[in-house]
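Lab manual, section 2.4: Encoding a predicted structure.

Procedure: take the sequence of the chain (88 residues), apply the prediction step described in section 2.3, and record the output as C-alpha cells. A sample record is shown.
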Amino acid sequence: MTPTDEPGPGPDTRKPRAELRHWSAYASVGEWFRDYRGYVPIQMAHGLDQLIRRTGMSFPDAYRALLRRGAIIHLDPSDDLEPPARTA
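Recorded output:
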C-alpha cells in the first residue's frame, strides 16, 4: 500500500461550535456528551456520570464541582464563566 492509497480521516461528525450550548444549560451527561463528542474525551463524561451517581448532584452542579477542583480545564477561560441567571 502506498501513502496515497491509505484512507484519510473520516468525515467530521462533530456538532459545529456555534451550535454548542454552554455547559450550564445541559440537564444530563448524555445530552451534553451528544453535543460535545469529538471536543472532549470520553473520560470526562465518565467522571461526570460517576460523580452524579455517587452524590445525586445535577449535571451543572457536578460540572461546576469538577471545574472548581481543576479536574476540568477549558482551553478558553471564558468557558469557565456562567451566563447570568435569567429573570422572568
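Check your result against the sample. Residues 22-73 form one domain.
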